[in-house]
């Protein structure tokens, strides 16, 4: 027994990580092997597929989906709110002298869905005073922009 312990002590004294020891880098590498963890990627992939599937569902039947105006939207209020808060930048007809045209192809958020437009107005417009047109104002002005300036991209405008 004693002899073995002595042997072990001697073995430990072998300069594994001694001065200039070439073993040091490879020992270090072996300590923590890299592990590939696929779960976050798999979860992302599943989410992407689910959202793609729901998109193609709602698009089925027509090549160009139109923005659907909610029944709660009030176009008359939307006009008043637009004229009070938006017209100075976006113009009477949504076209001037704004840095962003609110008509047709040039209106990025007027294409195919109501909510992104409403949310954008709620969060970012007017550019000089965000959050001053939220709730019904964001809904009404979004409906007004779609029904007045973009009727061909829109469904469900009253009257
Ligand atoms: C002070 C000027 C100003 C006012 C007032 C203003 N906007 Fe804007 N609006 C802008 C600018 C600048 C952009 C472009 C922002 C960008 O590209 O980041 C913009 C962009 C937009 C867009 C995006 C257009 C697109 O292509 O999708 C919408 C919609 C919009 N504004 C609606 C409104 C509404 C509704 C109001 C009133 C509640 C309003 N804006 C008030 C300056 C203004």
Using only CA atoms, what is the Rg?
Answer: 32 Å
Query: Could you say what the CATH architecture of one domain is?
Result: Orthogonal Bundle
Give the integer mean of the pLDDT values.
77
CATH fold group of one domain: Cytochrome Bc1 Complex, Chain D, domain 2
Structural class: mainly alpha
The low-confidence parts are 47-62
Order of helices and strands: HHHEHHHHE
CATH superfamily of one domain: Cytochrome c-like domain
How is this structure best summarized?
Helix content is 51%, strand content 3%.
Plain-language structure description:
This protein is mainly α. It has a domain at 68-155: Cytochrome Bc1 Complex, Chain D, domain 2. Helices cover 51% and strands 3% of the residues. It has seven helices and two strands, in the order αααβααααβ. A two-stranded parallel sheet has the order 1-2. α4 packs across α7 (136-149) and α6 (115-124) packs across α7 (136-149). It is globular. Residues 47-62 have low confidence and may be disordered. The protein binds heme C (HEC). The site of heme C has 20 residues, from α5 and α6.
